[in-house]
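Quiz preparation item.
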């Protein structure tokens, strides 16, 4: 039997073993991670409290725009391309 076949088989067995170990660790995670612990009860998730939107008067001046000038909402996007 050639060494190339033996080494390929050894690597295949190691890959399957590592995959099984990763799955076992994932599904038995008791450290509060994302793993699904068998028999664990779901915990409550904190709800975000909504904030009141801020109304700001801005002038777009002669900046490029799209849509009617008297639209009820103006969205201003700032981006920096470096």
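Solution:
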């Amino acid at each position: 039997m050639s060494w190339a076949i033996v080494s390929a088989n050894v690597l295949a067995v190691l890959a399957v073993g590592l995959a099984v170990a990763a799955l076992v660790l994932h599904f038995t995670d008791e450290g509060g991670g994302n793993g699904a612990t068998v028999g664990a009860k779901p915990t409550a998730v904190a709800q975000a409290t909504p904030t009141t939107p801020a109304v700001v008067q801005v002038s777009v001046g002669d900046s490029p725009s799209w849509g009617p000038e008297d639209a009820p909402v103006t969205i201003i996007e700032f981006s920096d391309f470096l």
